[in-house]
Structure formats: C-alpha cells, structure tokens
Design a protein that fits this description.
The complex is a heterodimer.
Chain A: E1 2-3, H1 12-32, H2 44-62, H3 70-88, E2 101-103, E3 106-108, H4 110-128, H5 140-155, H6 159-176, H7 180-199, H8 203-213, H9 222-236, H10 247-250, H11 262-295, H12 299-323, H13 341-360, E4 362-363
Antiparallel strand pairs in A: 1-4, 2-3
Chain B: H1 2-28, H2 30-41, E1 42-47, E2 54-55, E3 61-73, H3 75-78, H4 82-93, H5 97-106, E4 115-118, H6 122-131, E5 139-148, H7 156-159, E6 162-164, H8 167-173, E7 183-185, H9 188-192, H10 194-197, E8 202-208, E9 214-221, E10 229-231, H11 235-244, E11 250-256, E12 262-268, H12 282-290, H13 299-302, H14 312-321, E13 331-333, E14 336-339, E15 342-345, E16 353-355, H15 357-363, H16 366-376, H17 378-387, H18 409-416, H19 422-429, H20 439-450, E17 461-464, E18 467-468, H21 481-496, E19 513-519, E20 527-534, E21 541-547, H22 553-570
Parallel strand pairs in B: 2-10
Antiparallel strand pairs in B: 1-8, 2-3, 3-4, 3-5, 6-7, 8-9, 10-17, 11-12, 11-21, 13-16, 14-15, 17-18, 19-20, 20-21
Helix pairs in contact in B: 4-5, 11-22, 14-16, 14-17, 15-21, 16-19
Classes of the chains: A mainly alpha, B alpha+beta.
Chain lengths: 364, 574
Amino acid sequence: MKKNIGFRQFDKVLFFAPLGIFLIGFLSIYSASFQSRQALGETLAMRQVIWMGIGVLLVFLVVRVDYFRLQDLAWPCYAASVLLLILVLFMPARLGAHRWIGLGGFNFQPSEIAKLSVILVLANFFSRNRVEYLPKERLVIPFLVVAAPFFLVLKEPDLGTALSLLPILFSMLYLWGFRAKVMLWMGLAAALVSPVLFLFLKEYQKARLLVFVNPNADPLGAGYTIIQSKIAIGSGGVFGKGFMSGPQNQLHFIPERHTDFIFAVVAEEGGLVASLIVLALFWLIVHRGYRIAAQIPDRLGSQLACGVTTMLAVQVIVNIGMTMGLFPVVGVPLPLVSYGGTSVVMTMLAIGLLLNLKIHRPLF
Amino acid sequence: MKRVRRLSWFALAGFLVLAANLVRMQVFQNEFYRLRSEKNRIRVIYLESARGRILDRSGSALADNRLSFNCSAIDREARPFVEKSSAILAPILGEDAGALEKRFYGSRPGAFQTILIAEDIGVEKAVAIEERLDLLPGFMIETRPQREYPHGSAAAHLVGYAGPMTDREADAVELYGYSYSDWVGQEGVEKSYESYLRGFSGGLQIEVDNRGRMVRALGVREPQAGKDVQLTVDAKLQVFLGRLLESRKGSVIVMELAGGGILAMDSAPSFDPNSFASKRGRKEVRRYLYGEGSPMVNRGIRGQYPPGSIFKIVTALAALERGRITPQTRISCAGEWVLGGNSFHCWNSAGHGPQALTEAFAHSCNIYFYNAGVSAGIDAIFQKSVELGFARRTQIDLPEEKKGFVPSREWKKKRFREPWYEGETANLAIGQGYLQITPLQALVMVAAVAADGHVFKPHVIDKIDGIRVAPERSRTVVYPARGWEAVRRGLEEVVSSPTGTGRLARVPGLEIAGKTGTAQSGQDKPHAWFVGYAPAKNPKVALVVFLEHGGRGGVSAAGLASSVFKWLSESAYL
C-alpha cells in the first residue's frame, strides 16, 4: 500500500471554489450590515475575514494529517461535542435560543462541531462493520449516535441543524449498503410520527411551519420573512440591483439578512448572475466531494467524504430553498456566505478534510 | 461506486430545482416582485391643498385658511411605547393619559395613515411636543390648512361649510381625483362652487425603511391651492343683518338691482360653520342638526311659506294685464264681501270705502283685491305668478333651493278631482290658500316691479380667481310700462301714506316703496313679510324681510326693513 503525499494531488478547484463563494459572501455581509461612518476594520464583514483566515489555516493543518489517524479521535470528539451540547443548554439564551457558548469574547455554536463529529463517528463505525455481518441488535448504534445530538440540538432549539443531521445519516447508511427500501419505510414512519413531533415544537417553530404552507397567513408576523425574502430575490432580476443598492436589503426589509437570509441579499443585489455563480461554485464542491467519495478505495475515507459532502449539499439546498420559500424557515446558515464564525471554520474544516482525503487516499 | 453516484445525482437534482426556481422568480416573475418591492419601500404622504378663499365684494374673507397643528402617531412605531408617550403628552395637551391611550388603541388607521391623537392643538402645544419628540417614538406634529370662517354664524347659510366627505360622496366623486381624506363643500357657496374652491392635494413620494422611517424623498407633486371665489356680498351688511335677526326666526335678503347680485342673505336661527371644521365642534353640530329651530335650514331659499298680502302685487298685475281693472278703477270696501254665499272679510272690519289701486295697496285692502283677483281669474293669476318667478327655482347659485307652489285649475283637478272655485281665487288673490313661496322668490318679484319687468336670476358670485363671471340679468317679463308704474305708485303709497301699512319702513330723506304681508299660519302668530326697494323713483336695491311667526308685517317686518334701508343709505348703496 503506497500513499501519495505530494501536493500535486492538492485539488485546486476544491480550494478556490470556497474562496470564491466566500468573496461573494464577504461583499454581501458588508452590504447587508453596512452602517455609515464605520471603518472597514469594524465591520462584520472584516470579522468574517478573520474567521476565514483561521479556516484557511486549519485547511493547511488538516491536509497534513493522515486521515486514518482521525479514527482514534472520532469517539473522543463525539463525546466532547455531546458534552458541549449539554453545556450550551445552560448558557444564557440569545434570541430565545441556547445556541451559543461564549468563550473569551467569541461565541461558537457546538451544534456545528457536533455535525462533523457525528460524521467522524459514523464513518468510523461504518468502515469497521460490514452491513452483511453486523448483528441486528448493533444496527441501532448509528441511529443512537445521531439521536443524542439530534435531540440536544432540538432542545436548544435549532430545528434546522437538528434535521440536517438526518440526511447525513441516511446518505452514509446508503453508502454503507443499507437497503434503500428500508430507508424509505423509515422515512414514511417519520412522516407519520411528525404530526406528533409537531406538538413538541415551540410556538414560533409551529408558526414558521404553518407559514411555510401559506406565507400570506400572517404577512407581518411569521410570514414576513419569507415574503420579504422572496420579494428581494424576485426583484433582483437577471443582473441585480447592484452592490449596496438593493432596497429590500438596504432598507432592512429582510430580517436576518446577514446570517440565514444572506442569499436574498446576494440575489437582490447580484441578480440571477450572482445567484447562479454561487450555486455553480457550490455544485463544484459537492461534485468534487462525491467524486472523491467514489474514488477512495478505503471505506473510511469514502464514508467521510460522503458525509461531509452531503452535509454541505444539504445546507446549501435547505438554506437557499428556504429563502425562496421552498422550505420552511429553519435556522440553517449558507456555508461560507452567512455571517458566523463557527459555520465558516467548520465548513473550511470540512473542505480541508475533503482535500486531505484526496491527497492521502491510498493508491493501489 | 454506484451508490455515491446516485447520491451525487440526488444532490444535482436539488441544485437544479434551486436554479430553475431562481430563473422563474428572477426572470419570469421579476416584474411582479419588482412592483412588490416598490410598494414596500415607497409611500405617498398626502400634502393637503388649501381650499380657495371665499371673499366678499371688497375682498374681505368670509372663508379663509389658517395653518393648524395636529398631534398624530404612526401605529407600528408608537405602539410599543404608547403608555410612556401618553404620560408625556397628557400634561402638554391638558388631557388624561388614559384618554390618549384609548384614542390610540381605538382608531383603525388605513395602511400608512397616521392616528390622530389631538386635532388643532395650537402653536404653543405643538412646539412643546415638537421639543420632546425624541421621547415620543412614532409621534409627530402634522400641519394642515384649517378652514376658518371669520364671521361665524353671520354668513353661515350663504357661505356654507366644508367638511370631510361622507362615504357616499366619496364613492360619487372618486373619479374626479378626490381622496377619502379630502374635504368637500357641504353647504352654501362652499358647495355650489366646490369645483373651483377645491384644491388638488399634492403628494410627497418618500422611500422608507422597514420601520416606516423616511430615508429620502423621491419626488413631490406640489399641492395646488383652490381658486378664490369673490361674492357680490357685503360682509358688513351680512354682519349687520346677523345682529338684526338675532333671537328671531326668519330671513332677510338684499339684492342690487344693477346686476341681480345678492348683497346679503341671512337666515335665522343660524349656526357657526367653524363648528364643522374641527372635531371639537361635534357637540354644537349635533345641536344644529337635531336641536330646536332647524338652524341649518337657509330659510331664504329653503323655507316655503304663504306670502300673504305681498302677493297682491301679482293679483294687481294680472288684473291690469287682463284689463279687468285700470289704475283708476274704484272699488268700495265695506269691510265684508260676499261671493257665492260665502262672506269674505277685510282685515279692517270697518271698511276702507271706495278706493283706487294706489289706495288699495296703501291700505292693503282685501276687498279690492278679492274683486280684482276674481275678475282676473285663476288662470291669469297663475300665469302671472309663474312669469314673476313663483313655482320655480330662481336658480340662484346656492345649493338645494326650493321652488314653492302656486295652485292652478289643472292641479286642483288632478289632485282633488274637483273643479276650481272662485272662492279659492279670492283667497289666492290675497296670498292665502295653497300658495307657498320662498323669501327669495318674493324678492325676485318685487325686484321685477322695481326694474320694469326684469325678472332677475339672482346670484352671489362675482369673480372667480379674479375673473368676473357674474351673469347678466335674465328673463324679462314683457308687460306694458303703465302697469308697472301703477303698481309702483301703489307700493310708494304703502310706505309714504300716513295711513300706509308699511309706514314703519320709512327712513327720513329716503323714498321707499314696498308691500307688507301678514300670512296666516294656523294657530300660531302669522308670518310677517315686507318686500320693497329704494330709492322709489330710481330703484337701486330691493329687499325682502321675512319673519317666521313674526306677527303683523306692517309692524315687525316693516320696522326691520327700515333699519336695513337706513344702513344701506348710510353705506352709500342708495
């Protein structure tokens, strides 16, 4: 077994596509959070650059490590993130939710870390056990692995992040060889259970889901966000209203416009052109990610690549779909575009992992 | 790795759905969302225009505008802080904080409209609030032109008043570019010259942020003020008449014979049009509308009464025209006259003896006019009264004039299926019976006598926006000059003769002609009339004095007429 550690294998597309996306995100955050008489250094956009810097550094750190060594870190990482998820529930609430842990002036979201550690543990588990030989009773393990962070994140509450764990689990199960038919049945069961689950949701979450069905039911309340975001996107047209000139954005009609609804700003000010560029760059990453998953001969790497790529793809589809009213409003950031340090760092970590997989994959 | 490829396709499908939806929204539905975006951020603030002023003949204002200050609030911004804000506002406005809160929560403003908290609060309060606006989020001081009537009740019926539209009016005039908040003339000149007086509201297009705060102005359409309307009316005479009629019921109208312009028209009891111009007058308005005495009715054009003896002028003209009498014809009055078995009385039961037309007028002898009327016949009297303007509108430029009523043979047949009786002609001849006239019609009749048969179309308008629009005299009843002369001589005697019924109307140094009337009105005191003109030989001004249940015309009405003639003469109108 010979490994190619040369940087010839460094995937430039996979490295520069995120930078391109980040650049669009940087401009959008600047535009969305602009306040007159604010020095560039004080803007949110510049803070985002600092996070990106950390993210890029992490990429170069991560690519040097042989990913097989991550196997040993999987369970400790998972345990740590579950602990953090418990800890976050005791943190003071911000915007009505316990999502952030303050750490020396920085706030970070344990749920973002949890996503990656769940992928690590699942990849570890699936690579060590073959679906054909696994005793039936041990089959619950991957589900339990996901269930713990799922319910903890749901408790924060952060419905979007909790739900985004499910596609990751299912994609990795599928890759593992789990029968698609069984998963379909599980999905059906979940659909049947969800009305019961609905009862356990917070009032605002219920409102958001109901409003998703009919945004005009409460145009000034819960439906406001969707309506304003759709107006922003639609009014952008082909070429957009221009940088810093989107009325929906500049006049603050879009709530959460520099975080979850940043795509509405991109689409309003950059138009169809910018929107499609963002989509295309994301697709490049996702496409590469799955290709790596397909090319890697060992199952650990393949599972890691698949989990990470699915995580990114789901976030992109759910976030953009949500701004266009195709999904209910759930708090999922758009990777590298939405403002938020944890999301940027964790996304770059995921990118770093993909680069690492490409470089360190075993060649037979 | 087939399974990875399938996952990849799955993700690609998701991306393609997103892309397709982007194209749909940004390309095909772009127009729809663009409009929504505009509507979101662009608001129109109405800039209320000032109504045109209503001026009297010398240019002094009968209806004017002044700047008024309203305290209002923007619903969404003010709502979270209403309690705190009300507590700050209450001492300034001198109102209870609870009441202010109640007003805030009680109103349902339209989209982007403000909630009116206090209307017309005066400069001091406005400044005091303006200084504390930073403590009053969502509150503001709005300025708007406020209609004002300097002479108050004195010219109320003539000038009328303007007020907010009723819903039905709003529907009716929507096409003409009115908005719901616009004021329209509701009465008098304010109503009849609405199309000139109204201004066109302007608009300020502003861009607002999500909290409705103005970011910048996008465009402005300046409000267009209405045109000034100048009347033939003399405000001083109007005020004088107002004082004269105080605590009475009735109407006095004075007309210039040169062009048929109304010098003054007063009706009592009256109302203060200023009460309609703001919400503070609500209590008075309620009293005006539902209280005693119908103060809102302009008795000069909307009151219909039996004319009594002033109608003898018509009877005389009809008889003269038919040749039934000549000015020299003498008819003897014994105080009683029998027709078809019925006995008719003169007001003087002792009788006036034999009289010619002139004396008969002076004494207002019923017997003479019974004879003259019966000999002329109902048809002649009916025709003559219509010629002189009865039973039809004078078409004065004031709204909702009544047309009165003159009975005729045809009408009686249709109405009661009965023939006309001569006894009814006798009654009609002295202005009783079914007859109903407005004071203005009485004035038009006497003016025709004074002006050799010119039947005027009276008007109050003189100029609009500085351009003379007063109409010429209209409708002339052709009649031999002799007849008018004879009647005029009679009317002169009414005032100048020592035994004339109208001698109380005399003014030293002024020749006045006129006719008194005392019209039966059921059980109550009779209505008192005086119609006349002066100077008798060269008539310049005609007038009518009508007092509802005012007693004998020769006493109350003639006395009042004297005061008016005196004022006119002192003010160089005669």
